[in-house]
């Protein structure tokens, strides 16, 4: 049971970092479909720089810088050059995925996995499966920081004047303007914060145990994270819950494989995605009946 | 209204010293947008402690006026002074910092926030971090102190319209507003909430603020204001006057622009009107010159020989946020007849046009040339001869980003059941028709958005006034056009009617209606409230539109029925 929880958290950790990045962008009125690309860039840069310098923290820092730089480019494209944010976001995903693969081949001359000499620190490397410590065994420090980060995010978005400003910009830009704020500048700040969070998620995916990078290792997690933002009704705790839910469905899939359940493997592999669709459909249905929750979709207009 | 006298004892000394910097003065203010003059040489001084009403029809310059006063626009000429010092223009924030705040007609609070969050967000003494309980306690206290009955932990999107308005007022009061402007505050209010709001507005003035209220309903003006200033087409036609010294009749006359005694020539109004007045006179002449066939057509239909072109019975629509809903409207347009529809904008004209065209759900019957079309779609109705010149010619009338020929071809495409298009034929037809209608364009492939307003309207006429047109709905067909184009459009409509077709002319320009129409129907609050001959004087039409008259019965009676339609569903 405790190791099942560890499996859940291992999957949910990177997802939540990325989803929190998507959340702050969403609340500022940006549909961030570039999450997948930025996550891939974060994963690649963290591994590449860790290989180059031997220091995992420099790797993490470089990943954050690269992702923030691309986020600023994203902002320029949508806020200054008025590009369609869906198209530009998808373009950013394509660019990020391709850039990571291209640089991997250009620098390391391999299409296989590249291995980092070190990974993010792991507090509890191993624990007896009957001990509660097994819940966090093998998890990187960044996963363990998540409760604090999520709480900080909640305070920032829901209990600070900056949060009101972000909400106003995303909800009703006219209000932000008439209170004297520039919606576009607010979005830039949100996207910079978002870029940093996404990069940590990507770095955790690569350096949180596997300590390697390979092509397509994000495997759609960026999109799942975006789904978590919608599913969680753009509320911090809702998003965290959605990420844990996705973690559980992945963990069930893994457990099913390990236990050798008598069901086709394809079904087991598809399970997390099927559950996602079902959950999002239910959430949308509930939201429509309460006229709350997903209201963000209708209200985030410019 | 003796509001100031009553309130004076509360803060006699301080009020006096503060008062000076609460005086808002406009000196020779003009506002131009290109060739269009929205405000012309406005001089007015608003003192604190009083409610000042600014009234006028739509397009009279009221919105421009409030934007100049709140510093959103920098006037082209003249200046705005607050307490003797010039107001720095630039932004709402800047104006708010100087003490001028506006309660918008369209609310400015983010729907997903709670009231407390909204108030905190707009407050100048914002804290970086807060606890929800602290926020609620703080703002609940201030809201209670101001005497509002609001639970500040509720979300904006769950509030009723009057409650949202209250939030806006609290927001303005929690700053250091010295001058508060209400932009048509009753426009979207349910009638039963209007009195409370007007009482609130009077209280603000009693507290020594300078209160300016932009209104267009006379009953409300007389219920709330101490002074009234009338704008008509950017010009002050009635300089600020104490409400005790005017009657509703006089104000109505100034709003409509008929300043002389009833029955005087339409040409002798203020200078800015001359252009239009001449054009109307031209249209008038064109119409009256050819009036004979139309006059003959009507008795014929009266004998029941010919069926009406349009026969609408009991037409009702559901509420919509953009316009009043229709209540059981009956309307007949006979062959050869132009029926004018008058009314203050927002009283059901849009609902009427959309219901007739078939893009708004409606109940009741619509007979077009004897055929019941109320169950038919837009295209089928067109096949029965319905044509429309829509309100927004550049948005609804043409596709600005499509070529001129495509915009014209749409008319034929909608008429013919063919699936495949013969492009060369359509282009040739477009060239022929556009030339015949005198549209000046560079080439058939030019985008319609590049044409001038007059040419866009000619393009629409060329498309809509084809040989199969039976009923043309012309919604504000001459608005914003130059003199020549106005005369052309009016002449075209008159000719169409003279060929035995019907025209439903919706206009806010009463001179135009009087010049062109055979009968004038007045819509108010989505109801057919009056039907007048074109010889009716402006004052009479205006009274039917505004629902105010001698001031005896109007103040209480109309408010119950007038605005219900504008409520949100």
Concise account of the structure shown:
Chain A has 302 residues and is mainly α. Chain A has twelve helices and two strands; from the N terminus they run ααααβααααβαααα.
Question: Could you explain the architecture of this structure?
Answer:
- The complex is a heterodimer of chains A (302) and B (569).
- By secondary structure, chain A is mainly alpha-helical.
- Chain A has helices at 2-27, 35-53, 56-80, 85-108, 141-158, 161-171, 173-178, 183-207, 221-231, 236-259, 265-290, 295-299, and strands spanning 114-115, 212-213.
- Helices cover 73% and strands 1% of the residues of chain A.
- Residues 290-302 of chain A have low confidence and may be disordered.
- Chain B is 38% helix and 20% strand.
- Chains A and B meet through helix 6, helix 7 and helix 12 of A and helix 5 of B.
Strands, helices and their partners?
The complex is a heterodimer of chains A (302) and B (569).
Chain A (H helix, E strand, L loop, with lengths): L1 H26 L7 H19 L2 H25 L4 H24 L5 E2 L25 H18 L2 H11 L1 H6 L4 H25 L4 E2 L7 H11 L4 H24 L5 H26 L4 H5 L3
Antiparallel strand pairs in A: 1-2
Helix pairs in contact in A: 1-5, 1-8, 1-9, 1-10, 2-3, 2-4, 2-8, 2-9, 3-4, 3-8, 5-6, 6-8, 9-10, 9-11, 10-11
Chain B lengths: L2 H5 L4 H8 L4 E10 L2 E11 L4 E5 L6 H8 L7 E6 L2 E2 L5 H7 L1 E4 L11 H8 L9 H14 L15 H14 L4 E5 L7 H16 L3 E6 L2 H7 L2 E6 L2 E8 L5 H9 L17 H16 L1 H12 L7 E8 L11 E5 L4 E5 L6 H9 L4 E7 L2 E2 L5 H6 L2 E4 L3 H5 L6 H12 L7 H14 L16 H12 L6 E5 L7 H16 L3 E5 L3 H7 L2 E6 L2 E6 L5 H9 L23
Parallel strand pairs in B: 3-8, 3-9, 6-7, 7-8, 13-18, 13-19, 16-17, 17-18
Antiparallel strand pairs in B: 1-2, 1-4, 4-5, 9-10, 11-12, 11-14, 14-15, 19-20
Helix pairs in contact in B: 5-6, 5-7, 10-21, 11-19, 11-20, 16-17, 16-18, 18-19
């Amino acid at each position: 049971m405790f190791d099942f929880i560890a499996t859940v958290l291992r999957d949910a950790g990177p997802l939540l970092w990325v989803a929190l990045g998507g959340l702050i962008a969403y609340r500022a009125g940006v549909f961030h479909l570039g999450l997948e690309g930025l996550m891939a860039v974060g994963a690649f840069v963290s591994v590449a720089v860790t290989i180059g310098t031997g220091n995992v923290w420099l790797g993490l820092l470089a990943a954050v810088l690269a992702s923030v730089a691309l986020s600023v480019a994203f902002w320029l494209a949508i806020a200054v050059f008025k590009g369609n944010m869906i198209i530009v976001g998808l373009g950013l995903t394509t660019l990020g995925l391709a850039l990571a693969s291209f640089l991997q081949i250009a620098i390391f001359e391999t299409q296989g996995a590249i291995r980092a000499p070190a990974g993010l620190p792991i507090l509890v490397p191993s624990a007896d499966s009957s001990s509660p410590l097994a819940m966090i065994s093998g998890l990187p420090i960044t996963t363990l920081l998540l409760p604090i980060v999520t709480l900080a995010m909640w305070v920032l978005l829901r209990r600070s004047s900056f949060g009101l400003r972000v909400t106003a910009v995303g909800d009703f830009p006219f209000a932000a303007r008439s209170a004297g704020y520039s919606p576009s500048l607010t979005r830039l700040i949100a996207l910079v914060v978002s870029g940093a969070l996404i990069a940590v998620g990507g770095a955790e995916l690569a350096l949180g145990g596997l300590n390697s990078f390979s092509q397509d290792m994000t495997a759609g997690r960026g999109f799942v994270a975006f789904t978590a933002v919608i599913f969680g009704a753009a509320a911090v705790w809702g998003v965290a819950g959605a990420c844990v839910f996705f973690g559980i469905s992945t963990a069930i899939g893994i457990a099913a494989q390990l236990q050798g359940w008598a069901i086709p493997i394809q079904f087991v592999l598809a399970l997390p995605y099927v559950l996602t669709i079902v959950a999002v459909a239910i959430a949308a249905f509930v939201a429509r009946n309460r006229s709350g929750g997903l209201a963000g979709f209708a209200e985030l207009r410019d | 209204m003796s509001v100031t006298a009553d309130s004076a004892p509360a803060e006699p000394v301080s009020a006096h010293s503060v008062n000076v910097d609460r005086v808002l003065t406009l000196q020779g203010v003009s506002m131009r947008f290109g060739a269009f003059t929205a405000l012309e040489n406005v001089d007015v001084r608003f003192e604190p402690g009083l409610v000042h009403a600014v009234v006028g029809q739509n397009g009279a310059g009221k919105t421009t006026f409030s934007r100049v006063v709140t510093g959103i626009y920098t006037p082209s000429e003249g200046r705005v002074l607050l307490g003797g010092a010039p107001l720095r223009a630039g932004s709402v924030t800047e104006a708010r910092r100087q003490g001028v705040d506006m309660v918008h007609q369209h609310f400015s609070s983010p729907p997903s926030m709670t009231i407390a969050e909204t108030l905190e967000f707009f407050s100048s003494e914002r804290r970086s971090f807060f606890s929800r309980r602290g926020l609620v306690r703080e703002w609940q206290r201030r809201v209670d102190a101001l005497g509002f009955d609001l639970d500040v932990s509720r979300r904006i999107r769950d509030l009723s319209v009057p409650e949202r308005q209250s939030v806006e007022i609290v927001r303005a009061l929690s700053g250091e507003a010295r001058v508060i402007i209400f932009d048509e505050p009753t426009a979207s209010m349910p009638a039963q909430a209007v009195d409370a709001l007007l009482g609130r507005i009077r209280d603000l003035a009693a507290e020594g603020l300078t209160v300016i209220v932009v209104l267009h309903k006379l009953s409300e003006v007389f219920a709330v204001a101490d002074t009234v200033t009338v704008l008509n087409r950017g010009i002050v036609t009635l300089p600020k006057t104490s409400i005790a010294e005017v009657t509703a009749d006089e104000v109505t006359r100034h709003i409509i622009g008929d300043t002389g005694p009833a029955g005087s020539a339409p040409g002798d109004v203020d200078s800015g009107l001359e252009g239009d007045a001449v054009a109307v006179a031209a249209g008038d002449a064109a119409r009256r010159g050819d009036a004979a066939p139309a006059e003959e057509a009507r008795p014929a239909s009266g004998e029941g020989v010919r069926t009406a072109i349009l026969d609408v019975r009991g037409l009702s629509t559901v509420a919509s946020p953009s316009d009043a809903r229709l209540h059981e409207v009956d309307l007949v347009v006979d062959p050869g007849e132009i029926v004018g529809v008058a009314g203050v904008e927002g009283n059901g004209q849009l609902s009427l046009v959309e219901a007739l065209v078939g893009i708004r759900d409606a109940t009741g019957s619509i007979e077009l040339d004897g055929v019941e079309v109320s169950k038919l779609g837009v295209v089928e109705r067109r096949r029965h001869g319905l044509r429309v010149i829509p309100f927004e010619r550049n948005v609804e009338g043409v596709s600005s980003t499509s070529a001129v020929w495509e915009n014209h071809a749409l008319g034929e495409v909608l008429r013919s059941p063919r699936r495949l298009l013969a492009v060369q034929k359509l282009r040739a037809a477009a060239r022929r028709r556009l030339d015949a209608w005198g549209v000046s364009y560079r080439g058939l492939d030019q985008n319609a958005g590049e044409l001038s307003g007059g040419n866009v309207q000619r393009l629409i006429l060329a498309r809509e006034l084809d040989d199969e047109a039976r009923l043309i709905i012309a919604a504000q067909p001459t608005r914003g056009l130059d003199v020549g184009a106005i005369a052309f459009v009016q002449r075209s409509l008159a000719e169409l009617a003279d060929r035995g077709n019907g025209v439903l002319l919706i206009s806010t320009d009463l001179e135009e209606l009087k010049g062109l129409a055979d009968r004038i129907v007045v819509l108010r609050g989505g109801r057919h409230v009056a039907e007048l001959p074109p010889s009716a004087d402006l004052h009479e039409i205006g009274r039917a539109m505004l629902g105010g008259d001698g001031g005896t019965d109007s103040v209480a009676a109309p408010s119950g029925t007038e605005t219900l339609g504008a409520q949100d569903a």
